[in-house]
Write a structure and sequence with these properties.
This protein has 328 residues and is of the alpha+beta class. It has helices at 36-44, 54-67, 94-99, 109-115, 134-139, 172-196, 240-244, 248-254, 267-280; strands at residues 71-78, 83-90, 101-103, 119-121, 143-150, 156-164, 219-225, 231-236, 284-291, 297-308, 314-322. It folds into 2 domains: 27-196, GAF domain (Beta-Lactamase), CATH 3.30.450; 206-326, PAS domain (Beta-Lactamase), CATH 3.30.450. It is built from 9 helices and 11 strands. The strands form 2 sheets. The protein has a 6-stranded antiparallel beta sheet, sandwiched between helices. It has a 5-stranded antiparallel beta sheet with strand order 8-7-11-10-9. The two termini are 19 Å apart. The relative contact order is 0.13.
């Protein structure tokens, strides 16, 4: 995922703090892990409901594939019930996948959310910060990498993590890519919060947005991201054949975002770029690589304008150009 040799992260990536190494602490004597206000928002938005969301499922599936790890999870801390809830999981044993929750006594993600910082554990059996943690004996958690998912105020409300049953040395590149994934999750959560509050003000209908952005040339695509995590391509121009080697009809039918055929190592930051655009409702711009059906690697550049929909989703009308001829 990097041209440079990745450097291992130090074991003390997260400073010791109340709860960082004490999984059995009495929660009534410390500050709340997640504020009461955010618990209410998570409940009202439906995030705490045991209903799978396609957008979150894609995140953990993609993370597990890119990192080639045993398990990837998006975990919500439900402190009122003393549980951690797996909003999305990939690679879980059948029983855990069906239950989708455990006691907080088994939670490393609780530490991530409480400290609002990454937690890097190469071997939980020998790491003094988590000595005797029940997750090791109960579920065989040995290596763990978790990063916080934050709301618009910067408060951690969830954790995105990777789990291994064997020791693993996590690198600085690993944490950077996982944080990029978490940024995209954070934006989706914010969108669901906003949708729960009702339609946004000064909403512009999709018909009011010009389909052409300036004088940019390339394929035009209309990409919609709903408040419930669903996403699709509403329309695509004939130029998709010039870039991806497929017709616009096949593109719309086959792909749900503008990153068709994206290289795996470019995908996390590509997804995060839309998250940043949505978070501030600012123009979208990103560069990434694809591999065409013919095996050719191309550099693409995209621009787009986000517009709120009456339903609480966001529509981007994008122009994607093939920049391969001008990239060194």
């Amino acid at each position: 995922m990097s041209d440079q040799t990745p450097k291992p992260l130090p074991q003390d990536c997260v400073e010791d703090s109340p709860g960082a190494g004490s999984p059995h602490q009495d929660r009534t004597t410390t500050r709340r892990i997640v504020s009461e206000q955010n618990v209410l928002r998570l409940t009202n938005s439906g995030i705490l409901k045991p209903v799978k969301s396609p957008v979150f499922d894609r995140v953990v599936d993609q993370a597990r594939r890119i990192f080639n790890c045993k398990v990837s999870l998006l975990t919500i801390i439900d402190e009122n019930k003393g549980e951690q809830f797996f909003k999305a999981g990939s690679g879980l044993p059948t029983a855990l996948d069906e239950a989708r929750r455990t006691s907080l006594a088994y939670s490393f993600c609780k530490i991530v959310v409480q400290n609002s910082a990454p937690l890097v554990i190469s071997d939980a059996r020998t790491d003094p910060r988590v000595t005797g943690h029940e997750a090791v004996a109960k579920f065989g958690v040995v290596a763990y990498l978790g990063v916080p998912v934050k709301d618009e105020t910067g408060q951690a409300i969830a954790a995105l993590c990777l789990v291994e049953p064997e020791p693993r040395v996590w690198t600085s590149a690993n944490i950077e890519v996982l944080q990029a994934f978490a940024e995209g999750v954070s934006t989706q959560v914010k969108t669901m919060f906003w949708a729960e509050q009702g339609p946004t003000q000064n909403v512009t209908t999709t018909k009011d947005v010009p389909f052409r952005i300036g004088k940019l040339a390339g394929a035009t695509l209309a990409y919609y991201h709903g408040p419930d995590g669903t996403e699709w391509i509403e329309a695509a121009s004939a130029e998709t054949r010039d870039i991806w080697g497929i017709s616009s009809h096949v593109y719309v039918k086959t792909y749900s975002d503008v990153f068709a055929m994206c290289l795996a190592e470019d995908y996390p930051l590509a997804r995060a770029s839309f998250g940043n655009s949505a978070a501030g409702m600012i123009p979208w711009h990103h560069k990434w690589r694809i591999r065409t059906p013919q095996g050719e690697v191309r550099w693409l550049e995209g621009h787009g304008l986000p517009v709120s929909s009456p339903e609480g989703g966001i529509l981007w009308k994008c122009i994607v150009s093939d920049m391969t001829p001008v990239v060194p």
